[in-house]
Design goal:
The protein is an alpha/beta fold. 25% of the residues lie in helices and 27% in strands. It folds into two domains: 2-196, Rossmann fold (3-Layer(aba) Sandwich), CATH 3.40.50; 201-290, Methionyl-tRNA Fmet Formyltransferase, Chain A, domain 2, CATH 3.10.25.10. The chain contains eight helices and 16 strands.
C-alpha cells in the first residue's frame, strides 16, 4: 500500500518502523519543522524526522497545510492512505480527502474518552485503570471520526512516559492489524466523550492540601514532563515517582519523618524518586544525604 506517514514525536516512530518493515511504500513523511531546543537553542529535528532520514525516506516539514500549494503537493503523492500519529497540525478537508482511503489516526486513548491533545496524562490524572489506542478514520472534528480498531492497556500505576512507550508499540501493531484485515468503521458514541486539554506547566506544582492519591496521580501523569514539583530549602524538587499512604497526623506539606514522607490533605505521600534542579534522578536517600529536609519542615 502507498502510504503518507504524518507524525512528529517518539510516540509515532514505532508505527513508521512497522509500516516500513511490513513492506509498505512510504510516499513521504510529514512532521513538524526543526525547532530550537536545549541550552544552545540549536534547531532540533523531531524523532520522526530523524528516523525517516535514517530510513532514506522523503521528509516534508510544512508549517501549515492550509495553503493550496501544499495541498496540491500532498495530493500529487497519489497515496492510498495517510497514517497520522501525533503529527501536530490540523488537517483541513482537502488533505483528509486526498488519499484514496482517507486518513487514519493512532489515538492514545479508548475513544470517545479523552479526545484531544493529552489523553495519556488526563487518563492517569483521572485515576483510570485502563487506557489503550484507537485506530480511527479522521474527519474535520477533534478526534470525533469513526473508530476502526481498539486495543486496551492496563495502567497499573505507570507514569506517562512508560504508558506513552507502551501505547506507541501497541498502536503500531494495531495499525498493521487493521491494514491487513480492515474492519468497518463504527461511529463514536457521544455518551462518555471527554476532552483531554494540553498540559499546562502550572498544573505540575504540588498542592499538599489535596488527597495523597490525587498527588500520586499528578506525579505519575507529569513524569517525565513537566514533572510534579514542590519547594524545599528554597529549591525546586521534582517528584518523579511517589506512592500514597492512608494515615497521617501532620498538616498538609509537613515532613513526617526522616524518610521525607509528607502529609497531604488526606493521607500522606511517600516520594520514591526525585530530582534537584540541574541534577539527575535519584532516590530519596541519595537526596537527603546532602540536602537535609528535617522532620517537622513544612514544604510549600
Amino acid at each position: 500500500m502507498r502510504i503518507i506517514f504524518m507524525g512528529s514525536p517518539d510516540f509515532a516512530v514505532p508505527a513508521l518502523n512497522a509500516l516500513v518493515e511490513a513492506g509498505h511504500d512510504i510516499a513521504a513523511v510529514y512532521c513538524q519543522p526543526p525547532r530550537p531546543a536545549g541550552r544552545g537553542k540549536a534547531d532540533r529535528k523531531t524523532a520522526v524526522h530523524e528516523r525517516a532520514e535514517q530510513l532514506g525516506l522523503e521528509v516534508r516539514t510544512p508549517r501549515t497545510l492550509r495553503d493550496a500549494e501544499e495541498q496540491a503537493k500532498f495530493a500529487a503523492l497519489h497515496a492510498d492512505l495517510a497514517v497520522v500519529a501525533a503529527y501536530g497540525l490540523i488537517l483541513p478537508k482537502p488533505i483528509l480527502d486526498a488519499p484514496k482511503n482517507g486518513c487514519v489516526n493512532i489515538h492514545a486513548s479508548l475513544l470517545p474518552r479523552w479526545r484531544g491533545a493529552a489523553p495519556i496524562q488526563r487518563a492517569i490524572l483521572a485515576g483510570d485503570t485502563v487506557s489503550g489506542v484507537t485506530i480511527m478514520q479522521m474527519d474535520e472534528g477533534l478526534d470525533t471520526g469513526p473508530m476502526l480498531l481498539k486495543q486496551e492497556l492496563q495502567l497499573d500505576r505507570k507514569n506517562a512516559g512508560q504508558v506513552t512507550e507502551e501505547l506507541a508499540k501497541l498502536g503500531a501493531s494495531a495499525l498493521l492489524k487493521w491494514i491487513e484485515d480492515p474492519s468497518p468503521p463504527e461511529p463514536q458514541p457521544e455518551n462518555g466523550a471527554t476532552y483531554a486539554p494540553k498540559v499546562d506547566k502550572a498544573e505540575a506544582r504540588i498542592d499538599w492540601s489535596r488527597p495523597a492519591i490525587e498527588i500520586e496521580r499528578q506525579v505519575h501523569a507529569f513524569s517525565p514532563w513537566p514533572g510534579g514539583w514542590f519547594e524545599a530549602n528554597g529549591e525546586r524538587i521534582k517528584l518523579l515517582d511517589a506512592r500514597a499512604g492512608d494515615d497521617a497526623s501532620g498538616r498538609p506539606g509537613e515532613v513526617l519523618d526522616d524518610c521525607l514522607n509528607i502529609a497531604a490533605g488526606e493521607g500522606y505521600v511517600r516520594p520514591l524518586r526525585v530530582q534537584r534542579a540541574g541534577r539527575g534522578a535519584m532516590t530519596v536517600d541519595e537526596l537527603l544525604r546532602g540536602f537535609a529536609i528535617p522532620k517537622g519542615t513544612v514544604v510549600p
